[in-house]
Specification:
114 residues, alpha+beta, Alpha-Beta Plaits, four-stranded antiparallel sheet
C-alpha cells in the first residue's frame, strides 16, 4: 500500500538551476514508476546552511512530496547517498497527511464490587 512521503534534499550551491532540475527529475523518476503517484516539487533555492557541510556555507533546498511503496525508498535513498552533489537528505512519512485512526479493542465490562 503506497504511503505519503516527504523528502528534503540539500544540493551543492555550485549547481546551476538546470542541473538541479535535471537531478530532481531523475530522482522523481525513481519513485514514480514504482507504484507512486506524481511527485510535487518545491525548490526553495539557495539558503545559508545552519552549519558548514564539507566547508560549504550555502545549499540549494528542494522538497519532494510523493506517494510510493516503502520498498521503492531503498533505491531512491541509495542513489541520493551516492550523488556527491547532494549534501544532505532526509525522508519522512508526510506529516501533513493524517494517519488513519488506530483501531482500539473494546474494553471489557467492569465487574461491580458487591
Amino acid at each position: 500500500m503506497p504511503r505519503p512521503y516527504e523528502t528534503v534534499i540539500i544540493f551543492d550551491s555550485t549547481l546551476e538551476d538546470s542541473q538541479v532540475q535535471e537531478k530532481i527529475q531523475r530522482l522523481s523518476s525513481l519513485v514514480a514508476p514504482n507504484g507512486g503517484d506524481s511527485v510535487k516539487v518545491d525548490v526553495w533555492g539557495k539558503r545559508k546552511l545552519a552549519y558548514p557541510i564539507d566547508k560549504k556555507e550555502l545549499g540549494i533546498y528542494a522538497i519532494l512530496r510523493y506517494e510510493t511503496e516503502p520498498s521503492a525508498l531503498t533505491e531512491f535513498e541509495r542513489v541520493m547517498r551516492l550523488d556527491e552533489q547532494v549534501l544532505r537528505q532526509l525522508t519522512v512519512v508526510d506529516p501533513i497527511v493524517p494517519a488513519p485512526p488506530a483501531v482500539r479493542a473494546p474494553r471489557p465490562a467492569e465487574e461491580s464490587e458487591s
